[in-house]
Amino acid sequence: MEFCTGCGHRLGEGRFCTNCGHPISPGARSDDTAERPAVPVPTTPPPSVPPPPAYTPPPKPRYPLYADQAMGPPPPTYQPAPAPAPARAPSRGSRPPWLPLALTVLLVLLMAVAGGLLLLSGDGEERAEDPAPANGTAETENPPPSEPSPTSSPPSTSQSPPPADGPQDVARFATATAAKTAKPNLDTQGNQVRYEAANMLDGVAQTCWRMPGDGTGQEIVFTLAEPTELTEVGLINGYAKSSGRLDWYAGNRKVLAVEWVFDDGTMLEQSFSETRQMQSMPIEPVTTSRVLLRLVSVGEPGKGPSARNYTAISDVRLVGEPA
């Protein structure tokens, strides 16, 4: 029997060992007495290394390639809203949160009502005809609400003239009545000013009787304290008052002509020039207890900040002595 000398495998046909590929020598097949290993000597096979794969497929692509950068933070998880805290009753002594707002609204309403009352209390006709200058330095046209003006001047209180030698101004002891009189208002210092007919009898040029608008045709009656023989009559034909740079004589209407009428029917005419001084004229002695003054001609209102649409007379002069 023949065995391979390299690995001890039984030899078959051929020139090489079928197990290890060792060449077979010619003497190896001669007999079975040749020296051979009793037991086949195992050889340590070389470590088996798997051959590299012929093709390595690329890794599976990820879509999109920028997914890691494009992806934002994870969506918020739903959390149930916390239950509202129970309302706490206001403690004693604490103010409700709406109280300041309510007080503010109430204050604004009170101011609006007060402003409306002030506007309604004035004479709208006078303000429309004679608006005060914007600088606020002229006499206001808002009469005080507590001082309503009558439609006509009340007669002034007469006094008995003291005994005197010769003629004197008896107008100071007479009474005056006018059909129309302007309402009182305030001067530039906030003092109340009245325009009643008695102002023509006080001998003060800075006070006056006046009426709104054109006084042409108006009549004023002077009642003397006793029957008097008059020898002189006259008047200041406008509002002879100034207030700083404001001139009320130039601003109000001025009387240009009048008629004096006495008890016996005697009538005298008198014309006036533009001056704030007393303008009087002597007359033939006439005995009367009553003098009627009729306004025949009245001028136009003045110009500028002092302009007022009023007819005014500051003072009247009636000179005589008891009859």
Give the topology.
Layout: H1 67-70, H2 99-121, H3 124-129, E1 168-169, E2 175-178, E3 185-186, E4 192-193, E5 209-212, E6 219-236, E7 242-243, E8 246-247, H4 248-251, E9 255-261, E10 267-271, E11 279-298, E12 310-313, E13 315-322
Antiparallel strand pairs: 1-13, 2-6, 3-4, 5-12, 6-11, 6-13, 7-8, 9-10, 9-11
Order of helices and strands: HHHEEEEEEEEHEEEEE
Uncertain segments are 30-39, 119-152
CATH class of the domain at 136-322, please?
Answer: Mainly Beta
- Euclidean distance between termini CA atoms: 202 Å
Number of strands: 13
Q: CATH H level of the domain at 136-322: which superfamily?
A: Galactose-binding domain-like
Q: Helix segment count? A: 4
CATH fold field value of the domain at 136-322: Jelly Rolls
Beta-strand proportion: 15-25%
* Most strands sheet: 7 strands, antiparallel
Structural class: alpha+beta
| Morphology call | rod-shaped
Specify Rg, calculated over alpha carbons: 65 Å
**Whole-number mean pLDDT:** 77
Percent of residues in helices: 10-25%
Q: In the CATH hierarchy, what is the architecture of the domain at 136-322 at level 2?
A: Sandwich
Q: Any overview of this molecule?
A:
There is one protein chain. The protein is α+β, with helices and mostly antiparallel strands. 11% of the residues lie in helices and 25% in strands. The strands form 4 sheets. Strands 1, 2, 6, 9, 10, 11 and 13 form a 7-stranded antiparallel sheet that branches. The protein has a two-stranded antiparallel ribbon with strand order 3-4. The protein has a two-stranded antiparallel sheet with strand order 5-12. The protein is rod-shaped and about 200 Å long. It starts with 66 loop residues before the first helix and ends with a strand. Mean pLDDT is 77; it is low at 30-39 and 119-152.
